[in-house]
Amino acid sequence: MANQPWQEAIKECQSIQENSVNKEWLLPADKIPSAEQLNVIDVPKTCGLLTAKELEITETSAGDMVKKMAAGEWTATEVVTSFLKRATIGQQLLNFATEFMTEDALARAAELDAHFKTTGKIVGPLHGVPISVKEHVGIKGRICHTGYVAWVKNIAPEDALLVKLLKNAGAIFHVRTNEPQSLMHLDCTNNIHGTTVNPWNRKLSPGGSSGGEGASLGFKCAALGIGTDIGGSIRAPAAFCGSYGFRPTALRNPYKGVILAGDGQESIKCVIGPLSNSLSDIELFQSTVLDQEPWDEETSLVPLPWKEVTPTKEFTVGILRDDGIVRPHPPITRGLEHAAQVLKAAGVKVVEWEPVDHSVGWEIVKPLYFPDGGACQRSILEESGEPIMPLTEWALDYGRQLTVAENWDLNVQREEYRARYHAAMKERGVDFILCPTYVGVAAELGTPHYWVYTAIWNILDQPAVIFPSGLHVDQELDKIETDYKPRNDVDKREYERYAPEKFVDAPIAYQLVGKHYKDEETIAAAKVIEEILKKA
Amino acid sequence: MANQPWQEAIKECQSIQENSVNKEWLLPADKIPSAEQLNVIDVPKTCGLLTAKELEITETSAGDMVKKMAAGEWTATEVVTSFLKRATIGQQLLNFATEFMTEDALARAAELDAHFKTTGKIVGPLHGVPISVKEHVGIKGRICHTGYVAWVKNIAPEDALLVKLLKNAGAIFHVRTNEPQSLMHLDCTNNIHGTTVNPWNRKLSPGGSSGGEGASLGFKCAALGIGTDIGGSIRAPAAFCGSYGFRPTALRNPYKGVILAGDGQESIKCVIGPLSNSLSDIELFQSTVLDQEPWDEETSLVPLPWKEVTPTKEFTVGILRDDGIVRPHPPITRGLEHAAQVLKAAGVKVVEWEPVDHSVGWEIVKPLYFPDGGACQRSILEESGEPIMPLTEWALDYGRQLTVAENWDLNVQREEYRARYHAAMKERGVDFILCPTYVGVAAELGTPHYWVYTAIWNILDQPAVIFPSGLHVDQELDKIETDYKPRNDVDKREYERYAPEKFVDAPIAYQLVGKHYKDEETIAAAKVIEEILKKA
């Protein structure tokens, strides 16, 4: 039991959160949209607090931003200040940040500017690029509570390895972002910082567990973001918030210094990866990190540099419209049909992808999330006495206490399933699978219960990238399918949750999945597909 | 419980073993060395049963053998017949084989010869190369009992993936080899086929668990061999028998189709790799396998092709003379001192390697071998009612039933230990570690209890290659150190086991260890070292 009530324990974190906001950059009371205004995505443009240059900077890709700084057109200080200002508005409207690191960020920007002034050179490929980072990724000397009240005294002894490598390349970390209790929700609420909401529709979830990152990138509070993903935690936020996100193959990106309950669980590996506002920024992030050979410090990593892959449309895309368990909502179905038609018209080989027993895959991955029956997470929750949230209970119920031998048996099943899925892709000649990220465009707050559209690629350990379709929920085109007869209770639950008016303005995203270790090829193919869709 | 006495169950396997021997190739009674003749390594040369050409063939490296066949100088049939004849003598003297596959081998040789006759070309880089293979590596349609009486009805449904790839390259599998009960001895005896002995001294163990392979390569019954290694099972046999053996980094060589109790245990991975009679044959084996991209079938493998590495002597070797737990016997110490002096004289940078807490490493790996407390192995042994052998009990005692969370904790410790060892190598500027393979040159039968000199590299997952020093136990030079005071009970046990007269003629081997994933560099460095030693 806790020594003090949990409500006391969180005060320091809340105070850090509040006090780290620069009040000068807040929207004045008369500029704050009313609670009824759900879509706040354009507030930065309409509020008048950001200059035209600040708007331009925050809507520029990381890659282009670095070019501007390298050319001396923008300074790092200007860039970071622009993002800090926009992020402050984001915080007011979305509650996405756990902590701003304004002082450190501006000090580093000044250093970079001084370096550039003296040498005429940038320090690395991410010179001056502001990056937001999920709270449980260690930042030296700062609290890392990982969404648990019991851990509010936990200070990270050093930066996570990924953070170090990005800093080496010139990146600036200016804001840390929110995550759900236990980190096992596709939603974003905890007892310390409360609930983060979606910039496109504040009644909707930003996704999770990297929900603060989804909101951050969706609202353009950062040029790049860092999330983690064991069941969809990078991808759901990227999709829900209209940004980009990448789940790499496990053991490619350095994970050291991420603070997560249940360390040593290796049957399903949590991965770390980028969120962004373009596919080329994902490549920039990945190449910057892997060019530094992180495997020479984190020895479990695979020594595979990030390859340059020339995009070509000589590939076959399988369209997975429905996983056979839960039928996606109408906007998702429309988005996939749109892609199928446009790609075919552009000469890309498109086939239907019949899912390979996703229910079998889910029954393997589900118990592997908590093979100790969730005892580890429950004991941390009990330590502080904080209330267990409904979605935490929901996730912990996936598990039961397994014996070591039962865990082995699931590992064997997992390997067989991976081999079977890979063989199916080869047999059918499919290089990439284009599929939903979630049953719908975004979940209502507190409701993302269905993980299979993302988690299936975690058990398969296949790289998956999220990118926006450019389409949004349309009240006319995306009506309820009144004649649909749900196949099972889960399908019924998710079917009944849909009505177009609940999801006004929400963006429609795609998930593109490649084969194991074909990370570079997957991003390259997504670029080709996005290019074709943009031209259509 | 078994339906029939275990002594009945094994009869079919024994009959296969006996009947598969071509009686025409056996040594006649008057040529069989007496039981007192311990060293039988020269019998093939002295017995008169092999022609000069057959002797030449069986003493040629796989690489050179292929060149001869490619030039039309030797036929595959000649090559395979030569090895079958030599292996038959080996079987008489060493009991290393569980089964000859003479008919299949000769049929395949005839096919290869026909192909060469028609096309003038060899089928691949291992055209006509005879390979012996450890019994638990699946061969389609043949019994795979893995050293357990309970499994004598287990028929492999297909060839192991590694076997398939080697066959694709032209290799011929002519003999399957013995292994110990449970596969967890550094020795080679089971209740089905009995005991395999060492060709240099038949009172000594050939090592284990790939002991049949050690004997096979030591006696030159095959040009290449396949073993498996989770604690030293490729390396101890290679060292004890004076041949070469390679434990690659895990997840490089294809493991699919190896039949082992406890599948799904992933904390310490069993690896498969070659035994040979030269370092260049190890490279040939590895490149042949990895050039076929086995990761496109076995999806857990890392997609790293075998790199060509140019040997250079620009590296630093750390000499590990003593692991701080058990002091090696005098011949091992002499061998390492010899290498240190010769290498220094040749201008190689040699430093002393102070071991990084090998006792800590052993305490992590030991419980991970049997995190179910050995329940899996015990239940298989109970199923047939076969007697449990003392070395099986010894190994199973390493384990206790762990919870999943205890297993996680050991995984975390393992990762920390790996990172610490790697950091020490970097800090001290050491590229490779030259060290003992075992406390002594070989163990007496039934006595290999001390695994740490090999197992430490399993927990560290570092590549390790065994090669002979060219030296052998010398009754004058390798006297007992009478003034040595053992540091602990284990040290005392091993110290008291040594006397030069027990190990007459046994070869002295080296183990060279590289960094994680530096497999190619490790073999290349071993080649440089061997070349220098040969010239000295």
TrEMBL record, chains A, B:
It comes from the Eukaryota. Belongs to the amidase family. The active site is at 134 (charge relay system), 209 (charge relay system), 233 (acyl-ester intermediate). Its EC number is 3.5.1.4. Keywords: Hydrolase. It catalyses: a monocarboxylic acid amide + H2O = a monocarboxylate + NH4(+). Substrate binds at residues 183, 209, 230-233. It is an enzyme of class 3 (hydrolase). Gene3D superfamilies: Amidase signature (AS) domain. This is amidase. Residues 78-522 form the Amidase domain. GO terms for molecular function: amidase activity.
